[in-house]
C-alpha cells in the first residue's frame, strides 16, 4: 500500500512539474511576441503622463528626460563655483524652475541671463527688456535684449565661473534662443569660463528642410549656415558651432537628454514664447513665419498666432476666414491692428500633414499671386528669414513651390552629412 501511494504521488508531482514548465514556456513565448511587436512599431508618439514626457512604443512606455534632470552629470561641475544661468520660463524640471532648484541646493548662483522675450517669456519679439532682481532668490537677472550690445558687459562676465544653459528651442533658424547661447559661448571663450548646456528635445527635430543661410543675410534672426529647419537640439548646435568654427572654442559640456531620438514627436510642456501657444503652432511656425517678411499678418494679436494668416485686401470669397488683430500679451502693436483681415485658418490642419510638408511655400505663393503687389508684397526682412536671395526672385518669376524647393534639396543633403559628427541622438 505504501509503495502504491508513493508511486501515485510521484506521478502527480511529475505531471504538476510539467504543467508549471509548460505554463512558463507559454508565458515567455507570449511575452517575447509582445516585446517584438512593441519594439517593432514604426509609429512613435509622445504622451503626457503625470506631466512627464514619455515615448510610447506600442505599449512600452519609456520616459524622455531632459538634460537638467541628469544632475549627476553637472552638479559636481558647479560645486564651489560661481554659477550663471542662461535661462527663461521654459527652464523647468517638472513643476519647479531650475533657478529655484539650484538656489535651494545651495549652489552659488550669481547671475541669470535672459534671452529674447525676457526671463518670464512675456515680452514682444525684439522688445527691449531691462534687468531686474529676482524677488524669490535675490539673484540679478541681466537681459541680453536691453537695447545694448546683446552681449554681457565685462563686469557681468567677471561675476561667474561657469555658465549653465537651459532653454527650450523649437528647431528653427530664425528662432533666437540658440543665438543668445552662441553669443554667450563666444563671451565665455574670451573670459575663460566653462559652458554647460542642459539639452532639451527639438519638437521639430524630425525635419531638416529649407535653404542654408547665406552669410550676407546673417542677422539677429539668423546666425549660422544651417537650413530653416535644421533638426538639431541646442546641445547639438553648440557642438556643431564649436566644431565648425562658428564660435570661438570654449570649455563646452553638453548633458544630453535620455531616451530621446530625432524621430520622436516631443510635445512641449511649456509654451516657448508668447505667440507659440500650441503644438500645431510650433509645427506651422517655420512656414507661417515667412509671412512676417511680407505685408500679411500671421495672427499676432489674435487667439491663433501662427495658425492663421491674412490681409485686409484678400478677397473674402476665396478667403472666408476673418480676424481683427488687437494689442495683446506678446503683441503690443500687431500688424493691421484694428483692421479686418481675410485669410486662412490652419488650426484644423493635422499635425501629421504639417510635418510631412516641411518648409511649405504654397500658402505664401498663393497669397503673393492673389494680392498682385509685385515686389511691394515683400519686406527687407524676408531674406533674413528665408536666408537666401533666390526664393523671392523665383516667386516673382512665377516658379512653383516644388520648383523652388528643388533648388535647396542638394544643400540640405550636404548639410545632413556635415552635421552627422555632432549629433547626440539617432536620426
Can you characterise this structure?
The chain is an alpha/beta fold. The protein is 32% helix and 15% strand. It is built from 12 helices and 15 strands. The chain has a 7-stranded mixed sheet, sandwiched between helices. Strands 1-2-3 form a 3-stranded antiparallel sheet, with helices on one face. Strand 2 (52-57) and strand 3 form a beta hairpin. Helix 5 crosses helix 6.
Write a concise synopsis of the structure shown.
32% of the residues lie in helices and 15% in strands. The protein has 427 residues and is of the alpha/beta class.
Give the oligomer, counting copies of the same chain as homo and different chains as hetero.
single chain
- Main sheet? 7 strands, mixed
The number of E-state strands comes to 15
User: What class do helices, strands and sheet pairing give?
Assistant: alpha/beta
The mean pLDDT is 86
Strand order of the largest sheet: 8-9-7-4-10-11-12
Instruction: Round the Cα radius of gyration to an integer and report it.
Output: 26 Å
The residue ranges in which pLDDT falls below 50 over 5 or more consecutive positions are 1-20, 25-59
Indicate the overall shape.
Answer: globular
Termini Cα gap: 73 Å
Features:
single chain; 427 residues; alpha/beta; seven-stranded mixed sheet; 12 helices; 32% helix; globular; disordered N terminus
Could you outline the blueprint of secondary structure elements for this entry?
Elements: H1 2-39, E1 45-49, E2 52-57, E3 60-63, H2 75-78, E4 82-87, E5 92-93, E6 96-97, H3 98-104, E7 108-114, E8 132-133, E9 140-143, H4 154-157, E10 162-166, H5 177-191, E11 194-198, H6 234-243, E12 251-255, H7 279-288, E13 308-311, E14 321-323, E15 341-345, H8 351-357, H9 362-371, H10 381-386, H11 390-396, H12 401-419
Parallel strand pairs: 4-7, 4-10, 7-9, 10-11, 11-12
Antiparallel strand pairs: 1-2, 2-3, 5-6, 8-9, 13-15, 14-15
Helix pairs in contact: 5-6
Amino acid at each position: 500500500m505504501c509503495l502504491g501511494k508513493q508511486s501515485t504521488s510521484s506521478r502527480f508531482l511529475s505531471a504538476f512539474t510539467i504543467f508549471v514548465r509548460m505554463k512558463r514556456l507559454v508565458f515567455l513565448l507570449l511575452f517575447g511576441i509582445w516585446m517584438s511587436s512593441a519594439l517593432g512599431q514604426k509609429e512613435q508618439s509622445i504622451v503626457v503622463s503625470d506631466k512627464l514626457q514619455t515615448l510610447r512604443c506600442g505599449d512600452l512606455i519609456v520616459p524622455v528626460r531632459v538634460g537638467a534632470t541628469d544632475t549627476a552629470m553637472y552638479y559636481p561641475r558647479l560645486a564651489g563655483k560661481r554659477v550663471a544661468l542662461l535661462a527663461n520660463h521654459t527652464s523647468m524640471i517638472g513643476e519647479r524652475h531650475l533657478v529655484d532648484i539650484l538656489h535651494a541646493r545651495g549652489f552659488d548662483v550669481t547671475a541669470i541671463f535672459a534671452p529674447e522675450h525676457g526671463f518670464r517669456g512675456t515680452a514682444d519679439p525684439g522688445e527691449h527688456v531691462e534687468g531686474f532682481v529676482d524677488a524669490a532668490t535675490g539673484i540679478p537677472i541681466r537681459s541680453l535684449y536691453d537695447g545694448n550690445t546683446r552681449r554681457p558687459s565685462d563686469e557681468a562676465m567677471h561675476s561667474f565661473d561657469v555658465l549653465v544653459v537651459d532653454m527650450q528651442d523649437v528647431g528653427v533658424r530664425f528662432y533666437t534662443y540658440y543665438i543668445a547661447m552662441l553669443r554667450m559661448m563666444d563671451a565665455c571663450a574670451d573670459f575663460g569660463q566653462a559652458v554647460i548646456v542642459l539639452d532639451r528635445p527639438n519638437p521639430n527635430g524630425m525635419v531638416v528642410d529649407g535653404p542654408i543661410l547665406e552669410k550676407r543675410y546673417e542677422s539677429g534672426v539668423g546666425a549660422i549656415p544651417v537650413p530653416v529647419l535644421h533638426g538639431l537640439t541646442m546641445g547639438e548646435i553648440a557642438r556643431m558651432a564649436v566644431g565648425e568654427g562658428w564660435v570661438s572654442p570654449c570649455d563646452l559640456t553638453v548633458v544630453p537628454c535620455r531616451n530621446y531620438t530625432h524621430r520622436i514627436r516631443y510635445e512641449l510642456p511649456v509654451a516657448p514664447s508668447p505667440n507659440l501657444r500650441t503644438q500645431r503652432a510650433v509645427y506651422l511656425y517655420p512656414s507661417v513665419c515667412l509671412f512676417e517678411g511680407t505685408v500679411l499678418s500671421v495672427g499676432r494679436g489674435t487667439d491663433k498666432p501662427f495658425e492663421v494668416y491674412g490681409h485686409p485686401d484678400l478677397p473674402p470669397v476665396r478667403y472666408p476666414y476673418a480676424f481683427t488683430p488687437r494689442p495683446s500679451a506678446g503683441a503690443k502693436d500687431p500688424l493691421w491692428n484694428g483692421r479686418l483681415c481675410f485669410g486662412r485658418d490652419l488650426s484644423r490642419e493635422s499635425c501629421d500633414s504639417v510635418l510631412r510638408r516641411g518648409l511649405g511655400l504654397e500658402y505664401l505663393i498663393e497669397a503673393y499671386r492673389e494680392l498682385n503687389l509685385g515686389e511691394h508684397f515683400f519686406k527687407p526682412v524676408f531674406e533674413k528669414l528665408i536666408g537666401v536671395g533666390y526664393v523671392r526672385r523665383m516667386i516673382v518669376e512665377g516658379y512653383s513651390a516644388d520648383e523652388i524647393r528643388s533648388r535647396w534639396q542638394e544643400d540640405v543633403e550636404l548639410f545632413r552629412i556635415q552635421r552627422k559628427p555632432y549629433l547626440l541622438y539617432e536620426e
